[in-house]
Structure of Transcriptional regulator:
Amino acid sequence: MKRNSRLSAVLHALLHMAERGAPMTSDELAVCLQTNPVVVRRTMAGLRDVGLVTSGRGHGGGWALARPLEAVTMRDIYSALGEPMLFQMGNATESPGCLVEQAVNHALDDAFRDAEAMLIARLGEVTLAMLAQDFKRRFAEHRALYQNKG
C-alpha cells in the first residue's frame, strides 16, 4: 500500500523556502521535491488559502512563507492538508455481527484513537523553526566531516 507522503513533502518544501529566504517558483520547488510543478502549485495553493504561504507573479515572484518559522507547527501543516489519515490499519469489518470481532474492533479503535491523539499532539509541539535548526546542525556536521577529509 502506498504511503501518503504529502506532509513530509510540504515540510521539505517549506524548509527549502525558508533557507532560500526569497520566493521560490513552482518549478524550483518541483526540482527539490522530485515532482511535477502542477503538484506543487496545487499543494501550495491550499497552504496559501489558510495563510501559511503567499504567492507572487512575474519577475521575482513565486511562493514565500507568510509566517515566521516559530509560528508554524507540523500540526498546522497537517491541518492545512486536510488532516490526511495517519494510519493505514483498520478493522476488517466496521459493524461486525460476531461478538469476538466486536471485542477486537473495540480494542483496536481505542488503540488507534490514543495513538492518533499522541501523534497529533506531538505534531503541535514541533515548529518549522525547530526543523530548520536541526537541518542547520546536520549541514554544519556534514560540511565539517568533508572539510576534515580533504
Q: What stands out?
A: The chain has a mean pLDDT of 91. The CA atoms of residues 25 and 62 lie 4 Å apart. The longest strand covers residues 53-56.
